[in-house]
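Notes from hallway chat w/ T.B., transcribed later so I don't forget. T.B. wanted the structure written out for a chain they're using in a teaching module, and asked if we could keep both sequence and structure tokens in one place. Agreed to drop them here.
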Amino acid sequence: MAVCISLSGLASAVAREGGIGVIAATAIGMLEPDYFRNGVEANRRALRREIQRARELGARALGVNIMVAASDFDSLLRVSLEEKVDVVFLGAGLPIKGIPVRDLRRAGVKVVPIVSSDRAARLIFSHWRKNHGDIPDGVVVEGPLAGGHLGFRPEQIDDPAFSLDNLVPRVVEVMGEFEKESGRRLPVIAAGGVFDGRDIDRFLGLGAGGVQLGTRFVATHECDADERFKASFVAAGRDDLTIIRSPVGLPGRALDSPFLRRVASGENRPFGCPWQCLASCNARQANYCISMALYHARKGNLEKGFAFAGANAFRVKQVVSVGELLTQLKAEFVVTVESRILSLSAEYEKALARFKTIRKETRDRLRAIRREYREKLKRRQDSLVEDYHRSLRKIEALKGDYAAYCERLKVIAAQLEEIIKGTTLYPSTLNGSV
């Protein structure tokens, strides 16, 4: 969205609809007649003018996107601070050195770094905490489906391990640690491949606090690019998206164009570079200036340039207003949420029905167990009672035998006593024995 694609027109339109409108600062000075003579000053002047114009057009929440790797990063950041924009988004590098944190805080400007990994997020926030006693206000995590320069190696772009769906939860976890420590809310903003309301719902479900969209807003009436630039998005097919090797040394996703085909073929072209706006740019070896190429495309001349675009650019079917686009995104989001709620409701009803079935089965089984227990207990009680009575009868029988035995002993004792006394010397019979 840089090199004069998202300026005051698009940013103010998004802000008026309740979003954060973002002005891209990179090579914004190309709007000025003296850019080739004094790029730094042209950039400062153009950025200040676009910020002021966006405010005049009714922008409420206004942000500026600045590349940390830009040669005039400090200058662009100072303009944003002086104009007291609401937030600065700092990408294409780690904002850990030379950041005027106190000045930004005094101006009320929030700082949101753009990262492509949880490791980078932790590094930035840890550095700020150690060196500034402060931390940024949130983070944008940009996945490999984004348009423009990508913070991934070519082999990582299509690797599911580096997908935005996997990146967001990891960055959310890191931010959670700093939230607990600072007592501040630190939103994670998902970016790179976010296309519709379903995507928004999915990333919010993964813990993101918001989303950032670029490609969708190219195809809006308020976008600051030429209509031919917008038309190239509407006309694009899936096969028109390509990964290029940018002069700045990074892979980038773009729409194919006659210009890129000539670059790929090695065709010689006249070369010109306004100034070394990026220290890492090797424009002379690439034989073209990427800022100039993007600016030509911005003006609709795809013979001399090309457009950066996200992986879902081929899904753009028409140019609409920002208001219509946001209404559509909201409607898609609501439908997705409602559908999910209905699905959850249906699952709940199924679970509830299953619970009722299990509860009835459990109650029936408990009743059967209690019935079986009572029957077994009754049988056991009856058996014990029978055993008791049987024992009583046996005891009574033994008592009778014992009594008869005692009587018999008495008779024998009497006979023995008579023998001892001599009354009876030898009785003829003994009616018992011991």
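Follow-up for T.B.: The two ends are 126 Å apart (CA to CA). Might be a good example for the class.
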